[in-house]
Amino acid sequence: MFAQERLGVAASLALRHRVRAELLDHLARLGPAGLASRHSASLASQLVEQVEALDGYVARYRPQRLLAIIQPLLVLTAVAWLDWLAALFLVLSAPLIPLFMALVGMGAERLNREQFEAVSRLSGHFIDRVRAVSTLQLFGRTREATDEVHAAADDYRRRSLRTLRVAFLSSAVLEFFASVAIAVVAIYVGFGLLGYIGYGPSSELTLYSGLLVLLLAPEFFQPLRVLSQHYHDRAAALGAADGLVALLDADVEALRGVSEETDPAPAGELVRLEGACVDYPGRGRVLGPLDLTLVPGEVVTVTAPSGGGKSTLLQLLAGFLGPDEGVRRTAPGLTFAWMDQRPLLVQGSLADNLRLAAPEADDANLVAALQHAGLGELLARLPEGLATVVGSAAPGSPAGRPSAWHWPGSSCPTPRWCCSTSPLASLDTETEARVISALGELAEQGRCLVIATHHPALMALADRHLALDADAGALP
Amino acid sequence: MSRPGEGFRGLLAEFAPWLAMLARHRGRLAGGAGLMALTLVSAIGLLALSGWFITATGLTGILLAAGVAARLDVYLPGGGIRTFAVTRTVARYLERLYNHDTVLRLLADLRGRLFGVVAGLDAHVLAQRRASDWLNRLTADIDALDSLFLRLLAPAAVALLAILGLAGFLALWAPAAGLAAGGLLLVGWAWLVIGQARLGMAASRRQVEDREALRGRLVEQLQGLAELEAYGALDAQRRRLEALEAGLYRDQHRLGTLVALGNALSALLVGAAALAALWLAAMAWQAGALSGPLAVMMPLAVLAMSEALAGLPAAFTWLGATRGAAARLNGLRQAAGRTEAAADETPPPGGLSAELEAVSLRYPGAPLPALEQVSLRLAPGERLALCGASGAGKSSVASLLLRQLEPSDGEIRLGGVALPAWPEAELRRRVAALTQRIDLIDDSLAANLRLARPDAGEGELWSALAWVELATWAQALPEGLATRVGEGGRRLSGGQARRLALARLHLLDPGLVLLDEPFAGLDAGSVARLKPRLDAWLAGRSVIFLVHQLDDGAFDPPGIDRRLTLVEGRLAGYT
């Protein structure tokens, strides 16, 4: 028993590791554009909880399923050798069990799937309200939001109970048969010993064989009972697996296009779009048809009315999205940097965050990059310097700071071109000027910059200017 | 590892608030434990009575065969066996359903209450935690706590009672057998409850934290996929994830081994107790102190005890997970120590004056104060532009005026009334803010607008949208006002989100308005059209614009009367 449990645990650990790795690979392939419509908290909960839900199935259900076949057979042989009529009682009750359990199990599986959805929704709802808690405070709506959270949790309770009612039913069925079989065997053996039963092998029963039959009867059902306890694990795992498979089914090819198969961009060009269009389901065409060529050393600014396809164009250039029509060609071995409107800060020190972009950079390089972005002074004032933890919102760090911190990241590596959305949002005059001059230097070094902005200073820096109009991407 | 007494006291202290909460539902919990006990008694009774019955009938049969006139009432024990068989099934089913319902009820209440706690936290505490952290707190921690009653307290208590009851019952006929079996089972119980808990404590406690770290990294990776992919940093991030996962699984492996050990030990001890009972009962029977059927019944009853102990090893090995969750939820409750203002003075109607007098603000643990001796006065209807670099303290001033932070020193008055004396509802109605970060909830456009005024009719929502030039766009959407905006408004562009937030303000009728970079992310055309409307709406209201810089260009907010600049938490003077 000890060995069985240990091996089960080991197998389950290996499987979960593999499943999570595969999912992460897939999500990375889908990329930012593919994930835009999904809630990152729901996804994270799928990757943590649903993968963990596979545990019970592998560690407990599978080994027990084997035992549930072997042990009853052994017990049955022993009982039959002692008294074939008692064995017959057991045999008669046994096939009914899988039948009932299958009926119950079918319902449980569906309910479990619903429950996983409910858990995902609940966590999405919750993280959303927490993220907006400051705004809810401002509008004096925290009480209503609290009630909403309670209502969502209560809805989850009702869903859970529905699942449990069915899940428990399957074990109750087994329990019932096990109890009845013990009772029947006991009464049969008792009456047989009293000589009340005049047929069959009961006359050969002795006190000892009778007791042995009684003791063996519960053992006949025990593995099945344990199995039914783990049946819930199986249903949970299947529900989880469905959710995970649905995630894996998202089509990478359709999203990213087939850019690998197109010819590279002609020499001297970095990226070339030919008649490229992008459609979003439910929103129709958001961009294109568009022809665009990027060459080294040029600065291109993109303006558009809000919702006019700026981000889509950048995602298309970066290859996060594939064109639905038309072609995207890139120079071989092209590298690029990306700076988001909402910059990423990972949990960790300032240095960790900078090294995301340049893993090999030493501290001196990082300091230089920070000074380059006009952050040298600020760095000097931090008591812990590069080791200052920034990921979990350092105390007193205002919202404006992250994008400032983030800037040096893009200048560390040697990307040949760089996409950026509103890079100057929430910077003050002085930092702004330095960032602009740093951008100018990047361009002089032969890198191509594509910047979505309305900022006059950046527009002045640009060699070329693209204005996308509201009806999806016409060019000057 | 800490000393046992101290560890136990710490454990009790951490669970105390939750035990107190459980105690309020005494009736339901007692009912649940009662059903649990009934199930167990039926299981023991079924096996024990069957053994007694078979032995009794066997002996009677032998006597009958020997020609001795013997009588045995077969109907009463037969009926008893059947009753036990049915009660065991029914009681078990009801017990599980009833207890899960109880626990989930408790949890739903707890979840709502805990969100209330989060909602009462001040801006600084909120900024320190990540959304993924909160998510884990409220879902996983509370779920971990549900095992407190259902898997820990109730089964352990019922098992202990059953052991004592069984030992007493056996001792009625054979004191030695009762004592021996009871003693062995008690040792087993103590090991399963205390020993397993101690061995598993550290590793299972880490599980909660490790899982949280894993989830935090995952959210991070998913949200930052664009940058990670661009930097080619996906692999490095993956390695960090895998290191976390490996730690998590190392502990799980250890815990799994421990549970297996506990299960094996429990089976061993029940077997040993049954053997002891058998041997001692047989001796008593030989000595003539005990009838045969009773002697057989004893070991069978002890064997049935394995059911009472079955859940304990797994539950108590994982005690640390529950404990960690309890400790962290305690920490959260302590962080929310803010009290509601009780006074209710009536502020004047119309544009509100605002005064800061020598206000300082220090964040706990921060080396530099966020604001130092800031004094400013805003007359009713005046428009002030507060300029400054990021980190200069603009948002701190806003948070103070919005009562999301309390000043460390100094006094703040709005409309001549001290800020702490403002009734909460009145303050939220009269002071409106457009924050730098736009929070949209993952709900419909209408729901987002109605955050400002829940009773706003559709017509008002449309006119608010028209005011920010979103009406045409919204009308073109297939679902109109019912269109969902996605997580954090992700399905809207940055400019649309900002304009939606402005529309939200338009539904209010505030006396003081704080606008943080009202035109950030908007294109020149939109700004040109929006500016005069904003100007008109702001007439008669007091306004503070928070801006990085003013360049007297098209992007400057309208109608500024006065400018102040903040430099590193101090006012740098009038410009």
What sort of overall outline of chain A do the alpha carbons produce when their principal axes are compared?
elongated
The largest inter-chain interface, given as chain pair and residues per side, is:
A-B, 152 and 161 residues
What's the total helix number of chain B?
A: 20
Distance between the termini of chain A: 75 Å
What secondary-structure arrangement, pairings included, does this model have?
The complex is a heterodimer of chains A (476) and B (575).
Chain A: H1 2-35, H2 40-52, H3 54-82, H4 84-131, H5 133-138, H6 142-194, H7 207-249, H8 252-256, E1 271-280, E2 284-294, E3 299-303, H9 310-318, E4 325-330, E5 336-339, H10 350-355, H11 363-372, H12 376-381, H13 401-411, E6 417-421, H14 429-444, E7 448-452, H15 456-461, E8 464-467
Chain B: H1 4-23, H2 26-65, H3 75-119, H4 123-128, H5 131-145, H6 147-173, H7 175-223, H8 225-231, H9 234-286, H10 292-303, H11 306-309, H12 312-317, H13 319-335, E1 354-361, E2 371-378, E3 383-388, H14 394-401, E4 409-414, E5 417-418, H15 424-430, E6 431-434, H16 445-450, H17 458-467, H18 471-476, H19 494-506, E7 512-516, H20 524-538, E8 542-547, E9 562-567, E10 570-574
Parallel strand pairs in B: 3-8, 3-9, 6-7, 7-8
Antiparallel strand pairs in B: 1-2, 1-4, 4-5, 9-10
Helix pairs in contact in B: 1-13, 2-3, 2-6, 2-10, 3-5, 5-7, 5-13, 6-7, 7-9, 7-13, 9-10, 17-19
